[in-house]
Amino acid sequence: MRTQVGIIGGGPSGLLLSQLLHVRGIDNVVLEKHSREHVLGRIRAGVLERGFARLMREAQVGDRMDREGQVHEGFQIACNGTLDRIDLKGLTRGDTVLVYGQTELTRDLYEGRDALGGTVIHRAEEVEPRDIETQAPYITFRRGCEAIRLDCDYIVGCDGFHGVSRQTLPKHRVREFERVYSFGWLGVLTQTPPVSSELIYARHERGFALCSLRSAALSRYYIQVPLTDSVDDWTDERFFEELRRRLPDQVSATMVTGPSIEKSVAPLRSYVVEPMRHGRLFLAGDAAHIVPPTGAKGLNTAASDVHYLHEALVHHYIHGDDGCLDHYSERALARVWKAQRFSWWMTALLHRFPERGDYDQRLQETELSYLRSSDVARASLAENYVGLPF
Ligand code: FAD
Ligand code: DHB
Q1: CA 32 to CA 44: how far, in whole Å?
Q2: How far is CA 139 from CA 2, 114, 229, 369, 380, in A?
């Protein structure tokens, strides 16, 4: 088999890049380890920046998102029994975010790939990028009993944090930056009306909580839990009891609960690998960097990588100019680090860090009180939350 760009990973990064390249006439093949149903079964991101939405439209898959996605003009921060609204629209130049689930967006991308006749190979096993330092890289993989070789001009690793692509980079040519946290997020999806029309991020002495949503009838809730906890430790009853304790009374009192239709624990991690390119292998999205989910930046940062990379590949194939490809890593990382900073900051602002002492606790309270009192601080939060330009 031969193609121009071989893409490893059929999550949002890989599919969006594939669709954008196809629209510009650049041939590509996506290799995905799991079935489509499996990929669509993962409940993850919910908040999209405008830049992401713009890319979905450019990829000709934005219609349903525009119809069904909810524009959010602000969100709430709950602390000490009170709610404080961050007016995203008012604090930025009219910017907002879109609440539209990663599952829906991935479904739209798969449908877009089908409509254009794109090639997405599912259940591709033992995928391995090869000869990435040469002009003729290729990918080998297995599908059932068949061993297949895919020759390409470039390989893009969009295979998430646990993928194979990053492992292919020679250890002595890369630098890794990492912070791990001693807690995770336990997430629950329920078929119930959301407790609030806007997201509520809650700081509480028992730990962080988040009230989010997918639609008028679908709620997504998270609570901070120790990393040692598993979903089996948390019945629905225990989950909602704990969630209620972490929210202001006026919120808890109106919360409608129901049986969970999904429940999972996500560990929190900050991670970046530099550079995001070696030879003819490029990395994009979670394959190259991870943020704790607090600022809703993971998927949105994947989108900016895809933007820079697709633009660079268009410059190469259509204008014969390799300048953007050569600067891809540098450009992408500049924005990646800003998302790292913001996600770390918002995590530090709202979570309970059991290992830290009274001094850190006071600093956290002071940061929140500063945020309540300063329009400049609120504008900085809003500017980052709606997404820095790319
Ligand atoms: P992935 O979604 O991980 O996709 C990688 C794909 O590669 C997968 O389909 C995988 O099966 C495949 N793959 C892996 N290994 C191989 C292999 N060897 N061969 C072939 N295929 C392979 N982000 C936001 O922006 N906003 C939010 O509100 C938000 N909320 C979140 C909430 C939670 C609880 C979590 C866990 C994450 C959240 N994120 C959020 C982050 C977001 O979900 C990720 O950043 C996003 O999924 C990254 O997309 P990706 O395509 O780069 O990687
Ligand atoms: C959701 C996830 C996030 O990480 C976040 O900051 C906001 C919302 C969600 O899954 O809805």
Answers
A1: 18
A2: 10, 23, 38, 53, 43
Cβ contact 327:40 at 8 Å: no
Residues with catalytic function: 72, 201, 293, 297, 385
Q: Which residues line ligand 1 (CB under 6 A)?
A: 8-14, 31-34, 39, 44-47, 102, 124, 127, 158-160, 163-164, 185, 187, 266, 285-286, 293, 296-300, 302
| Nearest Cα residue to 324 out of 303, 336, 308, 302 | 308
- Give mean pLDDT, residues 326-331: 98
* Model pTM score: 0.96
**Which residue has its alpha carbon closest to ligand 1 atom 26?**
296
Helix (H), strand (E) counts: the chain? 13, 20
Average pLDDT, the chain: 97
Query: How confident is the model over 204-226, as pLDDT tens digits?
Result: 999 999 999 999 999 999 999 99
How many angstroms separate the Cα of 226 from the Cα of each of 186, 233, 268?
9, 11, 11
170: preceding bond cis by omega (within 30 degrees): no
